[in-house]
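note to self: dont lose this again. the chain is below, predicted strucutre after it. 323 aa total, dont forget to put it in the shared folder this time
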Amino acid sequence: MKNLILYALAIVPLFMSGKTMLDVEKSNLIFKNKENMTTIKYRTLEVNGINIAYREAGNPENETIVLLHGFPTSSHQYRKVLDQLSDEYHLVAPDYPGFGNSDFPAASAFEYTFDNIAATIDAFLEKKEITSYALMIQDYGAPIGFRIATAHPERVTAIINQNGNAYEEGLGAAWKDTKAFWANRNEQSEKALLHSFSLEALKWQYTHGTRNPEKVNPDTWHLDYLRMSRPNAHAVQLDLFYDYQNNVKLYPKWQKYLRENQPPLLIVWGKNDAFFPESGAIAFEKDVKNIDYNIYDTGHFALEEDADKIIPKMRSFLSKLKK
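---
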């Protein structure tokens, strides 16, 4: 009875304005369709024997943004972007193998290198028949995204860069132990990096450099810690840490891609990032002419504290490309 009364109260003003029941039903249908399009879906897609988990929102007929996450997180880091931009864009955020809710195959069955992860995500996009997209990159998302971009430059409509590095001057002080690991991988240099997977260190990655750590949802680092605590997770992550040096070797190739293709570039960078400081953002100005440059007084995961500034900037940047 209560629902009937509420429904009657809702439609009376419509009839008074001259609208019919058919008009009401059409309005409800449009509302339901819009709500369905903007709702985040949690899906999986099998790619070369591996189930890739991904979040998807928005109308696939709209322009696509592919959201590539960083270490040590997953597509969860883009939850605010998916929620707020799905009214106008089609958004797809995959979890890499071994990350998030994707399969975590043994190292004997899957080679944990950035080449192989990028190839897997590229194959994922192929299987989804997504052949035109803007890339949003952050941390690990940069070496994965730039591999995809250099393989398919004609598909990339724009790059949205939130602390995704492609220059040696963008490697901050926090890389000291990792660089020693690159120079000499042994038990001692591996042990020096194991603290990176502790709950305390994961929390630090999210809160270091923020203006107000209380604005950062603690679920973020607790989710990461849960996944980092799985058997063999540390060994896999150490393999990726070691392989990261091959990303640095590819920086000149990625810079050449930027110079030759000039993708529209939005920089939304947390300047207090100990891994990728602002010097990494500035470096892009050497190679890209069309840059919308924005620096925020926050840390590595800038969306956690400044999503209310970054997401409107993304919308504005992308809307200008439509004109």
